[in-house]
Amino acid sequence: MSDKPVQNKKRSLYVLVGLLAVMGIVYFALPKSWFEIPDENKKPAPPPDVQAIVKQTADSKDFKEHLQAGMELAHAGKFAEAEARIKTAARLAPELPIVHHNLGVFYLNANQPDKADAAFQQELELAPGYGPAHYSRGLTLQARRRYAEAALQMELATQLSPDFPDPYLALATQLSGKRPVETIQKWVDTYLRLNGTNKGLAYYDLSLAYKTKKDYTPAVKYGELALKEDGNSYLFLRNMGQLYSYVNNTEAADTFLRKAVALAKTPSPVYIEIGMNAQKRNRLDEAVAAMKKSLELSPQTGNVHFYLSRIYVRQGAKELAAKEDAAFREWQKREIAEINRRHEAQNALHKP
Question: Is the pTM of this model over 0.85?
Answer without folding.
Answer: no
